[in-house]
Amino acid sequence: MSDDGSLVRNWKNINPGNEAPGVNVYGLLPWYERGPSSVDVRLLTIEPGYALKTERFSGEAFYYFLAGNGILTWHHDATDLSYLIDNDTVGWIPGLHAHSFENTGEGPMRCLAVTCKTQGTYKMRDGNFQKLNLVTPTIRKIADCSYGFHLDGAHRILGGGYQVFSPGKAQNDHSHEEEVVYLVRGKGKLITGGNEYELEAGSAALTPRNIKHRLINTGHDLFGYIVLEFAPEG
After folding, report:
1. What local confidence, expressed as pLDDT, does residue 33 receive?
2. May I ask the CATH architecture of the domain 7-124?
């Protein structure tokens, strides 16, 4: 961890742990390395023909499927419901709702999994999965576009989306609640608290609350990243 509390890692530089047969876990931003933060960021890979059944916990989970095809089984409304999932499927589920993922495709399934602890209570119908519409942006500007997620009902996840910057685009300095960024395509820099970090596809970055920071697209490709903002626990 740096002096400003930020943390940057790329899953390609991490030795994975084995969660279950055919399932590998890359711990990008484990909560125990950041003191009071209880946000955990992992990349999951599931081989063809294998499945991952999640453990229940007090909190909420966010998922973004980066590659592969499969089925989500979600114990919802006292019934096991099955949903088709493929790349750019995104959603969140309360940690107390049992769910599992099965890879039914011909190649590995890759999924960004972000969890956070909270003591909040959830309704039976809380949670949502959707296919992200990358054709019609929620907000379109000259050098960047935003694509929003439906996160209604989440307690600590304040908001999130998929942001795309054109080459040369740079954010202004800004600060807010704790934020997690995962770079899907391109390369660039995160400048935060006087420190500078190189980012490339597969990198995850944490910026603590109230620390000024900004992102810059330094490549010749689009800079596309998933961003989530979290309220303090409790």
Report:
1. 64
2. Sandwich (2.60)
- What would the mean pLDDT of 130-157 be, rounded to a whole number? 90
Asked if pLDDT for residue 36 goes beyond 70, the answer is no
Q: Cα–Cα distance between 162 and 146 in angstroms, integer?
A: 6
Residue pLDDT, tens place only, 161-175: 999 999 999 999 999
Range list for CATH 2.60.120.10 in the chain: 7-124, 139-230
What sign does the dihedral 14-18-24-25 (CA atoms) show? negative
Q: Write down the pLDDT at residue 130.
A: 92
In tens, the pLDDT along 60-91 reads 999 999 999 999 999 877 788 899 999 999 99
Task: Kindly tell me the burial class for residue 65, based on how many C-beta atoms sit within 10 Å of its own C-beta (0-12, 13-18, 19 or more).
Answer: buried
The domain 139-230 is classified under which CATH number: 3.40.630.30, 2.60.120.10, 1.25.40.390, 2.60.40.420? Answer: 2.60.120.10
pLDDT of residue 5: 63
